[in-house]
Amino acid sequence: MRIQVRRTGGFAGIERYAQLDTTGRPDAAEWHTLAELALAGGRTVRPIGVPDGFSYEITVDGKTVYAADPRLTAEQRALISRVLKEGA
Question: I need a labelling partner for 51 at 20 to 30 A (CA). Which of 15, 25, 35, 70 fits?
């Protein structure tokens, strides 16, 4: 499974992007569950966020959803954080 996260917005307007491939990872099942839950809470159109807040584009195996601060689900927040930290 390929998971991609793009974060835009914020006070400085700096974009961050990272992706992670779960193939062959010992924790792949955990990633799959988290990704499915994050997708389920996403929107098919970009939501209106708050001034200086972040907007997110989450893509899992070609399916893209959108989310924005401060209305992220716990699963979206966890997935975004992990992918931006561990991904390339």
Answer: 35
